[in-house]
Amino acid sequence: MKADDIELVTRRPVVDGATQLVGIVGSPIAQVRAPEVWTGLFHFHGLNIICVPFHMLPEGLPDFFAGARRLRNLAGLIVTIPHKPAAVNLVDGLTERAALVRSVNFICIRPDGRWVGDIVDGIGFVENLKAHGVDPRGMRALLIGTGGVGTAIAFALAESGVSELFVHDRDTARSDGLAARLSNLERPVRTGPPDPAGFDLVVNASPLGMKSDDPMPMDATRIGAGSVVADVIVHETELLRRAAALGCRTIDGTGMMDHQLAFMAGHMGLGEMDFSAATARRIAAAARR
Predict the structure, then answer these.
(1) Within this chain, do residues 136 and 247 fall inside the same structural domain, yes or no?
(2) What's the structural domain count of the chain?
(3) pLDDT per residue over 136-154, tens digit each?
(4) What are the two backbone dihedrals, phi and then psi, of residue 42, each rounded to the nearest 5 degrees?
(5) DSSP 8-state symbol, 164
(6) In terms of residue numbers, what domain contains 240?
(7) Is 40:233 a contact under the CB 8 Å cutoff?
(8) Is 2 labeled as catalytic in the residue annotation?
């Protein structure tokens, strides 16, 4: 794949009456990279598909889903914050993984019209860690935020073999419920305060840091210099800046999304094409030139 080829497919307008849509629905939505990344990948492969953002408040989500089901040119739907848990009750079926996590971040539209929800946030998160040379197996991990993405990451970290997993959420009932579900699966998990001291891996899966004036999700001065600090937010947050200044390895959420692309593409019947994280990064970079 040559740079000139990438520039051609990311800049060529491909929208006509036969164009298929992949939607991404959330609130807020302006921060997402999915439209540029997915549209660039579709064009690179010569597919007449674009990715379109939909800003939908929680109270409007059921009506949005009802309307979207009537679209005959919708190829799939990505679900982002804060709608992932709510989407569980708005689809026709769930993968085993989504039923376990009780959250959905991608909806596959089957040929018979059935909407089936899956959750690949956790897989993408762990794969992104590994791409940065970090294997969570044996690590003592702290996870802050147990919404849809945090729950998916918690299950994925437990499956990956962390030695201990501590989860925290301002909504203690939510974190307690997640801990109970993981414990029922014989996974080593506890609830606790958002104190990062003594952890090998510190993860912010909360929305804190998305806005420049957000409060810190934890006391960054308590992070150990040898810790790995990861954030699900797709830009460098204040947490990551402070952790880097302490000598920590830091990983933002960009790669987490990129490592989900192949799984989502497989749901759309495109599994034989190159939807790798490396190709996604190159196409996104070319689109911004």
Answers:
(1) yes
(2) 2
(3) 999 999 999 998 899 999 9
(4) -60, -45
(5) E
(6) 122-254
(7) no
(8) no
